[in-house]
Design goal:
Order of helices and strands: EHHEHEHEHHEHEHEHEHHH
Strand order of the largest sheet: 1-2-3-4-5-6-7-8
Shape: globular
Bound molecules: 3-hydroxy-3-methylglutaryl-coenzyme A, magnesium ion
Keywords: Lyase, Metal-binding
GO biological process, one term: ketone body biosynthetic process
Number of strands: 8
Pathway: Metabolic intermediate metabolism; (S)-3-hydroxy-3-methylglutaryl-CoA degradation; acetoacetate from (S)-3-hydroxy-3-methylglutaryl-CoA: step 1/1
Number of helices: 12
Oligomer: single chain
Protein name: hydroxymethylglutaryl-CoA lyase
Radius of gyration: 18 Å
Domain Pyruvate carboxyltransferase: 6-297
Strand content: 5-15%
Largest sheet: 8 strands, parallel, barrel
């Protein structure tokens, strides 16, 4: 990555759709992912291997994985598809499917694959959120992560970690300890996570507290290149906090096309910052993303219509109105 290149991680098909009231068909989900893969974005969170009882909207993730393994993107871009796994069972289910697909492809498999499959796992910075989101304590969730990373490494699967509620918790309020966030981030990296996305789940983050958190992470010896930032836009501060992150040297940011989604365990939380808004801001600052903003805006408008919701991207709507 050059200093002026930002990697945008498109989380709409997972973080976005998991919290939309209206479930959409498998066909539409696949169409969304395949259209996103043609915009120039290089990492797409495509689903999660969670029990349907917990997150019914993610029930078709196995079919999505199978489809994406069988159908390389037509754009020729190198794409990483990422799947969230909450526990070892989620990863085992993913690995089983991947191995079955690769056995079926056999000798015909393309040695120069244009897609890679990655996973994300998560821990939270407060006890109350940990209990609500993963039904266990922070310490238990860290122990739950250990075998997931070990199995992923054995299978050569890249691992992203998330630290939720890093800038505010729906149960404990905005004053989450930056030292606790740094401690969990460092632990995930030591265990072997390839990058950690520090998440403002509730959107309570402000510019000063974002800066304080980033300085604490740096003081704990965590390299900027190991970090991503994941802003939900509940209070409209996501882009402000993005600029703080950019100035601090972070070059990976998560976002969701059309600003889809929220979090089922964070009442009132809106979606992630819209990808169109993030890309517009980054380009205005002379940063490169490789993303075609107009096509991203068309996708944001289309998927919002499919979901029967308003398009939450200001830059997306303005781009299409030009
Ligand atoms: P639990 O109920 O304690 O699980 O949930 P359990 O181990 O007791 O198992 C209960 C049943 O589920 C068993 O089946 C298991 O086999 C089955 P039964 O015996 O009753 O028939 N099971 C599974 N089935 C399919 N896939 C699996 C799986 N695991 C167990 N992976 C659990 C614990 C972790 C599973 C649950 O709490 C959970 O799924 N949590 C995840 C919730 C979630 O997806 N939250 C949203 C994603 S995180 C997020 O959005 C934040 C993020 O965007 C960053 C940010 O903004 O903060 C990443
Ligand atoms: Mg999120």
């Amino acid at each position: 990555l050059t200093a002026d290149h930002v990697r945008v991680v498109e989380v709409g098909p997972r973080d976005g759709l998991q919290n939309e009231k209206k479930s959409i068909s498998l066909k539409t989900k696949i169409e969304l992912i395949e259209r996103l893969a043609k915009t120039g974005v290089t990492t797409i969170e495509a689903g999660s291997f969670v029990p349907a009882k917990w997150v019914p909207q993610m029930a078709s993730t196995s079919e999505i994985l199978q489809h994406l393994l069988r159908t390389p993107p037509q754009s020729g871009n190198q794409i990483s598809y990422n799947y969230l796994v909450p526990n070892i069972k989620g990863l085992e289910n993913l690995v089983k499917l991947m191995e079955a697909e690769s056995a079926a492809a056999g000798a015909n498999s393309d040695s120069e694959a244009t897609t890679t499959t990655e996973i994300s796992l998560f821990a939270a910075a407060t006890e109350a959120f940990s209990k609500a989101n993963t039904n266990c304590t922070i310490a238990e969730s860290i122990e739950r992560v250990r075998p997931i990373v070990a199995l992923a490494k054995e299978k050569d699967i890249r691992v992203r970690g998330y630290v939720s509620v890093a800038l505010g918790c729906p149960y404990e309020g905005p004053d989450v300890s930056p030292l606790k966030v740094a401690e969990i981030t460092a632990t995930l990296l030591e265990m072997g996570a390839d990058e950690v996305s520090v998440a403002d789940t509730t959107g309570m983050g402000t510019a000063p507290r974002t800066l304080e958190l980033l300085r604490t992470l740096t003081a704990a010896g965590i390299a900027n290149s190991d970090l991503a930032l994941h802003f939900h836009d509940t209070y409209g501060q996501a882009l402000v906090n993005t600029i703080v992150g950019l100035e601090h040297g972070i070059r990976i940011f998560d976002s969701s096309v059309g600003g889809l989604g929220g979090c089922p365990y964070s009442k009132g939380a809106t979606g992630n910052v819209a990808t169109e808004d993030l890309v517009h801001t980054l380009h205005s600052l002379g940063m490169h993303t490789g993303i075609d903003l107009e096509e991203m805006a068309r996708i944001g408008s289309w998927i919002s219509d499919e979901l029967g919701r308003a398009n939450d991207s200001r830059a997306g709507k303005a781009t299409l109105a030009r």
